[in-house]
Amino acid sequence: MADLQLQILKEVDASGSIENTLQVPVFAKIDAAQIYAALNSLQAKQMITYSKIETDKWVLTPEAESFLVGGSPEYRVMEAVLKSVEGLTISDLKSQLGAIGAVGQGKAFKNQWLGKDGEKLVSKVDQLPEDVVVAQLKEIKETGKLSDKKELTELKKRKLVQQVKIVGYKVIKGEQFALEIKSYETDITADMISSGSWKTADFKPLNFKSEGIYPESGALHPLNKVREEFRQIFFSMGFTEMPSNQYVETGFWNFDTLFVPQQHPARDLQDTFYLKDPVKAGKPEDEEYWNNIKQVHQEGKYGSIGYRYPWKEAESLRMVLRTHTTAISSAMLHDLAKNPRPIRLFSIDRVFRNEAVDATHLAEFHQVEGVIAGYDITLGDLIGFMEDFFAKMGVNGLRFKAAYNPYTEPSLEIFAYHKGLKKWVEIGNSGMFRPEMLESMGLPKNMRVLGWGLSLERPTMIKYGVSNIRELLGHKVSLDFIETNPAARLDEDLV
Amino acid sequence: MPTIGVDKADLFELLGKEYTTEEFDELCFDFGIELDEDTTEECQGDERPQLKIEIPANRYDMLCIEGIAQALNEFLGNTKPPVYTLKPSTPEVTLTIKESTAQVRPYAAGAILRNVKFDQRRYDSFIALQDKLHSNLCRNRTLVAVGTHDLDTLTPPFTYEALKPTDIKFAPLNQSKVMDASEMMEFYEHDKHLGRYLHIIKDLPVYPVILDSKRTVGSMPPIINSDHSKITLNTRNVFIDVTGTDKTKTEIVVNQIVAMFSRYCETPFEIEPVKVISEHNEETRVVPNIEPRVAPAEISYINSCLGLEYSGEEIADLLKKMSLSAEPSTSEKDILNVKIPITRPDILHQCDIMEDAAIGYGYNNLKKTKPKGDSLVAAPLPINKVADILRYASAQSGYLEVLPLTLCSHDENFKFLRVEDDGTTAVKLENPKTIEYQVVRTSLLPGILKTIKENRKHSLPIKVFEAGDIVLKDPKLERGAFNQRNWCAIYTGKNSGFEYVQGLLGKIMQTLRTPWLENPESDTRRGYWIEEDEKNTTYFPGRGGSVIFRVQEGEEGKRIGSIGTLHPEVMSSFEIPYAASAVEINAEVFL
Fold first, then answer.
1. How many Cα atoms occupy the beta-carbon half-sphere of A109 within 13 Å?
2. Cα–Cα distance measured from residue B440 to residue B468, given in angstroms and rounded to the nearest whole number
3. Which CATH architecture has domain B382-590?
4. Residues A229-269: pLDDT tens digits?
5. Which CATH fold would you assign to the domain B3-75?
6. What is the DSSP string of A154-177?
7. Cα of B304 to nearest chain A Cα, Å
8. CATH number of A222-484
9. CA of A315: how far to CAs of A257, A261, A434, B193, B537, in Å?
10. In this protein, which residues make up the domain named Aminoacyl-transfer RNA synthetases class-II family profile (chain A) (predicted)?
11. Residues of B in contact with A224 (CB under 8 A)
12. Which of A106-115, A360-369, B345-354, B445-454 has the lowest mean pLDDT?
């Protein structure tokens, strides 16, 4: 192997370059694969560079090879005819020469070398003619080609020659050309650095056209990464995170305090998870509040005529899994009534709905909720704030539509234009909490509270093209998805 | 939100304009309803194109084409609100409520529409409105039910009574056979449409019925009317009976029906009242009560909420678009007296009036401002901060964060973990749709193990963690239960890898300034150690321990969680063909 490499280097050195390895007799004899390996190795060391040359070549078939020894069939027929004293019949020829006798006799007739006298074959030439076919075959064997194209076609017809592709290489000197082959280092080692051997060592080039070896790494969950983006938006706008870590709620806090009447469809078994253990809640400590809620539903209070139905304590004390984080907002606003002041609150946490599970619905998902309390807040403030908030997620140009929600009035659905879907899509809900809710808590009449909410999953699915919520939340999420998921940047335009 | 299908050509004719889909969509958006679908493209043959319109859940006056057109026409300024009148002003027809109904369905109201002209589409709309009311406001007929009759087939006065099922005999609507009410319950048991209402009265000792003076049955609410009194296209005089368990909603329903369909009377919007005689509960009165309710609204409040400085008259102009007529009070300067028509029972408070003024003005025309309070200081929830420290440290240690659901089956939370349910820990659901949602988890293990099961083709080892809430019962609390933030990690592979989770715990504890104490008895610093726990059956015997944490120098250590090699039966229960070790601790102790 090393000998071959050296031979190549010597040849290049002697001739300046090799135009085609096939033309160098010593290389032409060597198996092409070996040449290829030797050239690659030399090229890796930048001693040479090579390029491949493909050429067509004619070679002799085994039949033609046999002619080179004894002559072509027509030649042998003439040899036999001229040699015989009494002349030969066709069957004599067959017994003397076997199968080639028939082939040779036909060709000899065609060449007008042979004639017939009755049964006897007679020569039309005086002496043995030149064996042209063998001469042609010899030329092909030596040069791989034949100048006379017509004759070549004839030989091909006679299945004496066939065409093959052969590969040779053009070799020229490389940057590191030398007649001596050095060994190359693959890496810089600590030993080299301490011994200083790196100064004289030659290094194999690095492979930049590969991804390399990935680090073994952990990862945060994609949905939690988006959650963190939302948290940072809230923090940047002065919002304090609510203690939303309370999944179990009572009918009172989840519905009644929010002025959701006890017959409201949201309170159906079809929509809300009720608990059988524990089955009944305790009454809230603030009895005045409890009574206010009862009155505002049943008879009306604070300028409201109420829903005018018999409000049932038992319904209020039923246990539920919270259907929205607004149950927490309600408790926080009730606390605020002890010391009313402007405040901004948010939470991003789980909520539970007794819904049939499909590609866009799970029994659990995350709700993003924001609350702003302040004196004399206007509806224009709500709209202006929403534009700022959504602009931070890269969503601009909002439109607001009137909607209905039992605990906010006015209620505004927030729409944004989706360039991909080419339509306005609803991205969240907002509104001003109803006075029935706030004044029952004891908040002053001119303290108004804005609230808005959206799910965490929906914008994440739209932004990152996830079509099934179960691929984003729950135990069916793929670990590969978690591992390879890029950073979440809500303000980044995805192309 | 109810979706109402209306005839497209009829609606545009009522609105006096051929809208393009885009134009109509815009109109809906501005008003606060939503065009869901325009079926023009899908119509075949002589099918008439429909518009499917989503209506806010509290606009009972917009559950039919008549109401939608009326509201939109007023919004567009095309028409004034109808003025409803009662004729004769003193009712001639009475409906007497017997005390026997008190125990089953105590309230009833009624009304009569004289000289009505139906055609097929009006008739269909009349029936559809009753269906929409039944499924929305009436909560599937539990709260209120409506019956409509050809008055000319009955002989007033009417009574509303509750009778034994076997004493009620009539041929129900579209049937020729007379049956008693018990037979009817069987007859309709598997009926697609009516079957779902039977439960409302089925097991009661008596069923409510509307009877005429000849004891002819008009209807048996909330199930069915009699065939005898059914209305047809030729019916001219309609008697409407409304019964319910909720008085307010009973009144709202009768009002909506007469408000919508009195327009087809010979004198439009003229309604014949009925006197309800209900001595036993002092509910004797004339129905329907069509007088608008006058609600005072503060001009300053509306202006303040909308950021406007409008006069009372200017606000009244906005309200006109929303079917509300208003005029400034002559006695109180800041008060606008707003007349709430019977079509707007959704208005409860002046905030509802303020909203209508806002819609009249146009939400998207409001001046955009910023709420004060930009200087407020933000703060994270402390437990979320602790959890983030745990999460970042776990991810930095090469573990993947997973996010399973908090609801799981009872078996997953107990039996699969080889834990007995002593009834003191887990919150249990009353009405889950699948067994996947029977309990709220009391450990993070089931969710993580389920995640590993789903990812068992992933290259080994699988190293995952979660920082999430579990829920535990506490009968002393108002809400009966509380959340606890836990942190849990599992190593799964060809080997159980106990040392790896042990090391991960060490790394986490190091992050939380809590060193491992080799001799916790002599070394009294803050720190943690592990003690073997034979009682923890989730782990293999001899391979499970408790994590003990001493918060401060000199204090007693307290158990904050567990660590160990999961029992092989746990692995088979979760169908994971590997060995695993787990660690789970309560994160709240680091607050």
1. 10
2. 12
3. 2-Layer Sandwich (3.30)
4. 999 999 999 999 999 999 999 999 999 999 999 999 899 88
5. Phenylalanyl-tRNA Synthetase; Chain B, domain 1 (3.30.56)
6. HHHHTT-EEEEEEEEEEEEE-TT-
7. 7
8. 3.30.930.10
9. 13, 10, 21, 29, 40
10. 224-486
11. 391, 401, 403
12. A106-115
CA-to-CA separations, A80 to A67, A73, A87, A98, in angstroms, rounded: 16, 11, 9, 12
- State the pLDDT confidence band at B345, using cuts at 50, 70 and 90: very high
Give residues 342 to 401 of A whose Cβ lies within 8 Å of B: 342-344, 347, 350, 352, 354, 356-357, 362-364, 372, 374, 376-385, 387-388, 399-401
Instruction: Please report the pLDDT score of residue A1 as a whole number.
Output: 56
State yes or no: pLDDT of B349 exceeds 60.
yes
- The Cα–Cα gap between A336 and A320 comes to 24
Contact B462 A245 (CB under 8 A): no
A266 at interface of B, judged by CB pairs closer than 8 A: no
B289 touches chain A (CB under 8 A): no
Phi/psi of residue A122, each to 5°? Answer: -125, 145
pLDDT value of position B228: 96
The CATH 3.30.930.10 domain(s) of chain A lie at: 222-484
| CATH number among 1.10.3720.10, 3.30.56.10, 3.40.50.150, 3.40.50.720, domain B293-364 | 3.30.56.10
Confidence of residue A356 (pLDDT cuts 50, 70, 90): confident
Please name the residue of chain B whose CA is at the shortest distance from the CA of residue A355.
B433
B198-213 pLDDT, tens digit each: 999 999 999 999 999 9
Q: What is the CATH number of domain A1-72+131-213?
A: 3.30.1370.240
Mean pLDDT of chain B: 95
Contact (CB<8Å) A277/B379: no
Decide: helix, strand or coil at residue A454. strand
CB contact under 8 A, B378 and A236: yes
Q: Does B429 contact A321 at a Cβ distance shorter than 8 Å?
A: yes
Is residue A184 very low, low, confident or very high in pLDDT (cuts 50, 70, 90)? confident
Report pLDDT for B26.
94
List CB contacts (< 8 A) between A400 and chain B: 363-364
Instruction: Return residues 108-147 of B near A (CB < 8 Å).
Output: 139, 143
- Count of residues in chain A: 495
* Look-up of token digits 């539920």: A320
Predicted local distance difference test score (pLDDT) of residue A494: 62
**Joined tokens for residue B65:** 């084409």
